[in-house]
Recover the amino acids of this structure.
């Protein structure tokens, strides 16, 4: 069965500092991994994805994520946080080998960037 | 840009009412999804559809049904609304992997 864990409900970081939002996953086949961001009263916006290839994936707004197969992790990172990055972040996984269209989302991590 | 629209941003209904939530996408995507979002629970899949008139149950289909008569439109139906269906409902569409979400409908059942 597929599952996603986001172990931190909230992450606080000072503006200008690097940020990391953690995600671990479990799938039986090949993982398709995603990060989405949700601003207040909005739907989710796609940030980046890992399907295959380079383990370091670059996405929108300066975000990147590193796929680590041995640790089954896909942590979201940014070298220098902005106050405007404050939002709710969701990690999601889909089993790429099974042919399913079913995505499993984590419970979300609220990022607060302090000025 | 892909646009996914949902018929209402806020909706208040009474217990026992039949409720229709509509979702329309303009990018000819094959796949469409309905999720509900609750604090601390993340997004949970209710139903998805991979073609017109085709649907599959997600993780929490009880109390819901769906309809997809046209490719661009995917409707979520609450047959008899209950207070535990008070939630944020998000529609999404996708062509292959990444999903595009609508703005959400915040439904309150009183």
């Amino acid at each position: 069965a597929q599952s996603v864990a986001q172990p931190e409900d909230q992450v606080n970081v000072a503006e200008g500092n690097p940020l990391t939002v953690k995600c671990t996953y479990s799938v039986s086949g090949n993982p398709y991994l995603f990060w989405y961001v949700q601003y207040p009263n909005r739907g989710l916006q796609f940030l980046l994805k890992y399907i295959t290839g380079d383990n370091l994936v670059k996405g929108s707004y300066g975000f990147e994520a590193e796929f680590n197969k041995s640790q089954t992790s896909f942590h979201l990172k940014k070298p220098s946080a902005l106050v405007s990055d404050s939002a709710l972040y969701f990690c999601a996984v889909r089993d790429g080998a099974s042919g399913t269209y079913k995505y499993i989302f984590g419970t979300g991590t609220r990022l607060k960037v302090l000025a | 840009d892909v646009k996914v629209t949902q018929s209402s941003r806020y909706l208040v209904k009474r217990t026992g009412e039949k409720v229709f939530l509509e979702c329309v996408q303009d990018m000819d995507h094959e796949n469409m999804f309905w999720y509900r979002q609750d604090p601390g629970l993340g997004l949970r899949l209710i139903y998805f559809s991979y073609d017109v008139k085709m649907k599959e149950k997600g993780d929490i289909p009880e109390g819901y049904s769906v309809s997809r008569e046209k490719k661009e439109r995917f409707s979520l139906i609450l047959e008899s609304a209950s207070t535990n269906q008070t939630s944020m409902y998000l529609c999404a569409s996708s062509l292959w992997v990444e999903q595009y979400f609508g703005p959400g409908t915040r439904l309150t059942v009183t």
Q: What stands out?
A: Residues 35 and 108 of chain A are 10 Å apart (CA to CA). Chain A has a mean pLDDT of 93. Chain A touches chain B at residues 6, 9, 32, 34, 36, 41-46, 49, 51, 90, 92, 94, 101-108 (CB under 8 Å). The first strand of chain A starts at residue 3 and ends at 5.
